[in-house]
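[Discussion] Sanity-checking designs against the backbone

I'm trying to build intuition for which residues belong where. Below is a structure token string of 123 positions. I'd appreciate it if someone posts a full sequence so I can compare it with mine line by line.
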């Protein structure tokens, strides 16, 4: 079992930046691949980014590629999502997620989830 706590959301103007954090506890952080997902009102939860246990592999949704960066700090048991050039369509609740070992992009493959943090981008 691993527990995840999201932080770092907020309100930002279009074109601005935010960094989300997700602190993990309970098990060896380096045994888990990590992902970020988001859910806008009335929409399904969608994949945003994922990173492998080693940090050597990353995947991004096409909608965020080139603007968002996922990274990990194993010493702090934390995964980050740096979001630049934010757009109003990025407005959503953002969730971090963890799964043992291998990287994945489907939400059903992640058994552990943070509580979510709201990101609102104004135009």
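Best answer:
Here's mine. Compare freely.
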């Amino acid at each position: 079992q691993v527990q995840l706590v999201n932080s770092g959301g907020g309100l930002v103007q279009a074109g601005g930046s935010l960094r989300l954090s997700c602190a993990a506890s309970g098990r060896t952080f380096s045994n888990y691949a990590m992902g970020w997902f988001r859910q806008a009102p009335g929409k399904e939860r969608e994949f945003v980014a994922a990173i492998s246990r080693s940090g050597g592999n990353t995947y991004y949704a096409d909608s965020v590629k080139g603007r968002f960066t996922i990274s990990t700090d194993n010493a702090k048991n934390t995964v980050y999502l740096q979001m630049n050039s934010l757009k109003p369509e990025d407005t959503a609740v953002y969730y971090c997620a963890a799964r043992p070992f291998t990287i994945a992009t489907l939400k059903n493959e992640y058994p552990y989830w943070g509580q979510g943090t709201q990101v609102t981008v104004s135009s």
